[in-house]
Amino acid sequence: MKRLSLLTLFTAMLLALWLLLNDTLEPGHWLLGAALTIAITLGTAAMRPLRARPHHLLVAVRLLGVVLVDITRSNIAVAGVILGPARRRAHSGFMKIPIDLRDPYGLAALACIITATPGTVWAGLSPDGGNLTIHVLDLQDEEAWIRTIKHRYERPLMEIFE
Amino acid sequence: MTLTLLPSALSFASIALVLAMACAAIRLLRGPSAEDRVLALDTLYINSMILVLVLGIRFDSRIYFDIALLIALFGFVGSAAMAKFLLRGEVIEP
Amino acid sequence: MSGVQFPLWADLLASLLLIVGATLALIGSFGLLRLSGLFARIHAPTLGATLGLGCVLLASILLASVGAHRLVLQEVLITLFMVGTAPVTAMLLMRAGMYRRREDGSRKPSRHQDTARPSTGGASPE
């Protein structure tokens, strides 16, 4: 039953993409899209090594809002660093963050969030998965960055994926 | 004909994006490392995609949207392949 | 411009979004010239790829929807695509930069000194 609901979720997302691409809601496109997406879902099922088990979709929506706000804020911050005086540009560096998230899909989402936020780029995960390295453009307060990433991103992702 | 801001905003956006592409092109030529050049090329294609979208608004045509989508697609494939090559010396590993 | 007249609010809002988006893209590309070292420069283009592109896409959605008197959401496709792909390129470049700087950085110091060398070792490429 669980598998079935995930299958329908994936198919529905693909179908939405198809309708969006064709910019139409005509019944013909619904039919063709449905046939295509079901075929794609069944055909690629073997290629997906792990099934993601997202739950708490409300948490995901809230996380999306948080990320959008953070992207806007750090855009302004990074623009300030680029246009500001030279001493503001001398603080970039690598830092390590201890991490508890283990789910591969959660880690992929975390990597995308960190890299999509201007000012931080994901630089690697230690082989045991316990230490995350990121590069920060404005590295003045390591504690603040650790707090931001653990509280704002990692905790909701653990709720969603684990 | 009422006064509208949109034509001037479109001109401003086009000029700003051309300047942005010029910045990326300078970085592309100057290097110094290969990664810098790939990064500059990546920036160049993102800027050109935004410019195509702005042109789509200016000429009021939906065709520009498809062009932008194609630029995004090919730009990503190109940059990812080049970055992967710099990382491992191979694009597709056996 | 074609002769379409947009209502004043759409005109102003779209103009604002276009100006903000293009300016952010320009600042991001300018950062490529102004920041020193590959690792600092990787951050610069994300400006244009996130909020810069987002603002222009919003303006495009707004004007297309107002012009066609219905919701045109095709631009969401580009957003979805960029959200999925822009971080991948940045991460691959980051890894390539770390790997190559450790490999030949000491042997062949470049003319432009990299201020941000991964001194802590970072994550090991397999």
Helix content percent band of chain C: 55-70%
State which percent range the strand residues of chain C make up. under 5%
pLDDT below 50 for ≥5 consecutive residues: which ranges of chain C?
105-126
User: Which range best describes the helical content of chain B: under 10%, 10-25%, 25-40%, 40-55%, 55-70% or over 70%?
Assistant: over 70%
- How would you state the average pLDDT of chain C, rounded? 77
Q: Rounded to an integer, what's the Rg of chain B over CA atoms?
A: 17 Å
* Largest interface, C-beta within 8 A: B-C, 54 and 60 residues
Q: What is the assembly state of the chains in this entry?
A: heterotrimer
Distance between the termini of chain B: 64 Å
Arithmetic mean pLDDT of chain B: 87
* Beta strands of chain C, count: 0
What spatial form of chain B do the alpha-carbon principal axes imply? Answer: elongated
Q: Report the total helices of chain B.
A: 3
State which percent range the strand residues of chain B make up: under 5%
Structural class of chain B: mainly alpha
Uncertain parts of chain B: none
The number of helical elements of chain C comes to 4
